[in-house]
Amino acid sequence: MSYLAKFRVWRGDADGGGLKDYEVEVNEGEVVLDVIHRLQATQTPDMAVRWNCKAGKCGSCSAEINGMPKLLCMCRMNTFEEGETVTVTPMRTFPVIKDLVTDVSFNYQKAREIPAFKPPADLKPGEYRMQQVDVERSQEFRKCIECFLCQDTCHVIRDHEENKESFSGPRFLMRIAELDMHPLDAGDRQHAAQEQHGLGFCNITKCCTEVCPEHIKITDNALIPMKERVADRKYDPIVWLGNKIRRRA
Amino acid sequence: MAHGVDSPGRAQVGLKTARTDRWWLAPLRIGVILGFFIVYATIRIFMNKWYWVDEHHYLTPLYSPCVTESCVPGSSHLGTWFPKFPVFIPFSIITFAVLAGFRGTCYYYRKAGWRSLLLAPGACAVPEPHKKYSGESKFPLTGLNLHRYFFYGALVFGVLNVYDGVLAFHGTDGGFGIGLGTVIIWINLVMLWLYTLSCHACRHIVGGRLKNFSKHPWRYRYWTWVSKLNPKHGTFAMASLFTVILTDFYIMALSAGWFSDLRFLN
Amino acid sequence: MTELERHTYDVVVIGAGGAGLRAAIEAREQGKRTAIVCKSLFGKAHTVMAEGGCAAAMGNANANDNWKTHYVDTMRGGKFLNNWRMAELHAQEAPDRVWELETYGALFDRTPDGKISQRNFGGHTYPRLAHVGDRTGLELIRTLQQKIVSLQQEDFEATGDYEANLKVYAECTVTELLKDGDAISGAFGYWRESGRFILFDAPAVILATGGVGKSFKVTSNSWEYTGDGHALAMRAGATLINMEFIQFHPTGMVWPPSVKGILVTESVRGDGGVLKNSEGKRFMFDYVPDVFRAQYAETEEEADRWYKDADNNRRPPELLPRDEVARAINSEVKAGRGTPHGGVFLDVSSRLPAEEIQRRLPSMYHQFKELADVDITAEPMEVGPTCHYVMGGVEVEPDTAQSSVKGLYAAGEVAGGMHGSNRLGGNSLSDLLVFGRRAGAGAAMYVESLGKDRPQISEADIDAAAAEALAPFELEGGENPYTIHQELQQSMNDLVGIIRKADEIEQALARLTEFRGRIAKMTVEGHRQFNPGWHLALDLRNMLTVSECVAKAALLREESRGGHTRDDFPGMNAEWRKLLLVCSLESDGDAVTVVKKDQIPMREDLLELFERTELAKYLTEEELPA
Fold this sequence. Notes:
The structure holds 3 protein chains of 3 kinds.
Chain A: E1 3-13, E2 16-26, H1 32-42, E3 62-65, E4 68-71, E5 85-89, E6 96-98, E7 101-102, H2 105-112, H3 132-142, H4 149-153, H5 155-158, H6 170-181, H7 190-195, H8 207-211, H9 218-235, H10 237-248
Parallel strand pairs in A: 1-5
Antiparallel strand pairs in A: 1-2, 3-4, 3-5, 6-7
Helix pairs in contact in A: 3-6, 6-9
Chain B: H1 25-47, E1 52-53, E2 58-59, H2 93-105, H3 107-117, H4 147-167, E3 178-179, H5 180-197, H6 200-208, H7 217-229, H8 233-256, E4 263-265
Antiparallel strand pairs in B: 1-2, 3-4
Helix pairs in contact in B: 1-3, 2-4, 4-5, 5-8, 6-7
Chain C: E1 4-8, E2 11-14, H1 18-29, E3 34-38, E4 54-55, H2 67-77, H3 84-104, E5 118-119, E6 129-130, H4 136-159, E7 166-170, E8 172-180, E9 183-191, E10 197-201, E11 204-207, H5 228-235, E12 240-241, E13 246-253, H6 267-270, E14 274-276, H7 300-308, H8 322-334, E15 344-347, H9 354-360, H10 362-372, E16 381-390, E17 393-394, E18 408-410, H11 427-450, H12 459-474, H13 481-495, H14 502-520, H15 532-556, H16 574-577, E19 579-585, E20 592-598, H17 604-607, H18 612-618
Parallel strand pairs in C: 1-10, 2-3, 2-11, 3-7, 11-18
Antiparallel strand pairs in C: 4-6, 5-6, 8-9, 9-10, 12-17, 12-19, 13-16, 14-15, 15-16, 19-20
């Protein structure tokens, strides 16, 4: 059942590095993370990799396998041919720290810039009443495990470092949508989505949805509805005209 | 200066992409289809002929409604609203503007266009060739937010197309009849409507914009229904593209007399 | 002098799981400058793995529920060994803690009248678990994380600095607590990323480091669960209790090998899933112990009726407390009635429509589909026991969560007592919130009481801590820490696992002594920057200390109760119920000593919540009320 697999793993740090070739044993039912762990235990004890739950629930072991952003723990080895070389690199949108570990602080900064849930002023704890149909949309987005693979794959920042300042990325635009659809949130979020968080940069090419390990329909259910909500407020000429007239009057 | 995935600080992998699959196939395929449609449609609207089959009352959707004095007799069954157009303006210009506008601002076609025509990005995690990128955040691309108005327009044109479709049950002897043309026109109608109703703007308008579904049970029901169609919006978009071309080509061929309609009934 | 960065705080919270974050929120809200230090990234803590829900007697699903019933269930589940005051506080305060989460933005599943929906779980009389599908832990951690962010936003408004009063030190490990006399003065650690040292000058430290599962081979716990808090507390002079009680969750995945141990939520059974052996028999009916006989169904028909009409039928035996179910599965497999991969079948596919399974158990569906290629809507799962939770932990004052060391607090899994000999499912998340908040408040109050008179850190202690942390780099040609870790896990799993015997535990103790010698001589390759080998080497010390506590206490307790099953002492013994086993380190070194200590008798009004006949099953004659 077990065989020797060919692995190419990126080793290095911010000063430089490169792909290194390894041959390593693979057993039935294993995932890429198991193989990386075997490398650590047998050949490269100082190879850095982030991981926690090993069950696709914590979103720590994000990396790129054969060029595609993936969780190392959710990528089964039987999806490769036995002779195939498996290339593993760190996420390429964030600064690298060492080997497969990147500095994802960008994401925590962006998280901080989104105003938190604003509780309704007239309800005390225990008095919240919400219907299941009303919470379901936001619940889908709260499945997010913050693996940041969507942020990694998004070309807006992956291919344009300079956009990092004005674009929060799919994860956090989805967070705005989550709050905007929260039945009891008292905040106003639509203008900020466009003006401060760069929703307009998104060209809905759906790579975020494609790589999401939680299968959240980020583009269809969060980003596009959010664009439509922004359009209601900002780009609807009838609304715009109405506001102009009202201001004149 | 190095940019994108080669920016300073990021892992210097030395490969543009480490993808080993044929990631270029999908954008290439979609690009060829879109390119073909654009060329075909441009040629067709400047032809200003072969859009009406008088014998069976077939009108191609690309020229519907035909409402100028330039239209051939019979095709302007909704009346003539405009005088004769000068030769250099195609007289289906309004139809074309609305249909192209609806598809051009459609969220699916935007994805398809950005990916296959502008390669931004060609495929996920594959670097795009552009130095600068501002997406849809600046004029004129903020105009894409007008999608909802094209959706309303498409609804009106959709209704007119249904009217055309009803007239297309026109038998050879003037009574009721069905030919292959009628079938093709109706298949196209179904695809057009599925495409139109599965639209993201439609989903937003019927219910998506609400904060509390539970207070609007009917709109929630419509939203649920549109939400079921919406994931297939891309499929409907491509399918209806093919059926439009097929319908138009079939009617053009009949009109030009290249072959004659296959009749099932009268 | 050691080169390091220094920070001064009022309260340092070690661990960023549910308990740590709730403690930090409380301390910050009480005006204390607070740091959160965690080994992983912010928001990745093991709490995300909790699936089923958070137990709180809100009475939304069944209006008969109240804190007293919750208290009674908790004591019963823990076989009366629980610290009754903790169980009382927990049952009383859990609803408020859950409601509070809604004001932070949490979105629980709802009842038809818009309240928080509650689900059934093993050992709980009424549907009691607030939940979000089967990812409740994720909701909890994300909600608390976002609350922290909102507090930071408030600070930003006020001071222009997000981190003025509350800062998260992510990927940072604390290796030593520092003391001034008998009081805590700070914490010493290193950044995982750079390997550089960091010092927190703080009079109050809250341990919220979770459990010890990584000392066992088959476990649902992540790499972080190395018993750091347990070991730090002991080295600082605090005591641990109940360390012999380890919960083996009855349903972990058994195949494929790489995911062996990963949790299969109890909700599968709460929502109708049944356990079958290879002969297709629902074997749990044969394993209902006498103490639970009255509350559990005797026939499959009655059990099935319960899901629809819980008031007039008794519960299915699949929903017995976890220790009972785990032992039953273990016996079935040993008797040769197991599945091909050494587990039993857990079947929900024949019990619920496929759509319903996907809606109620979405992450289980994905977990099996993607990790094992099994479609749980069409075929049964294979499951077996997995090391899941340690009931034991730092001995604390129930109301303030303070340990026996001044300034040292503990909350969550790292604290002991609350769950007695066995924890009920769903009581963990509520434990985190209730005692997280109490620890935060306790620490804030203590800091307040100090005024300007704060304990001082001595330079010699810093140098000693630094030398200790760098020791694994000193030697050359020694053993690789990965090898020792694997052997430790194997020994604990085989010899101090779910079923224990005196001679096996003694063997384990001998092996632990041997590991101690090998650890002193192990070698770490590479340098200090993000070096997992070094990190493991440091964590190994903690695992070893904790394992020693588990083994020594397990050898001493000559009875079977909850998460401690002795093959050579199969029954529960009322005399032992009165006793706690307290572990501490000898002042001059690493050796663990375990001593017996009397339990405080339960307060009378709480005792009256039970029938005398039930009490008679647990208490000695003298303890029974007249």
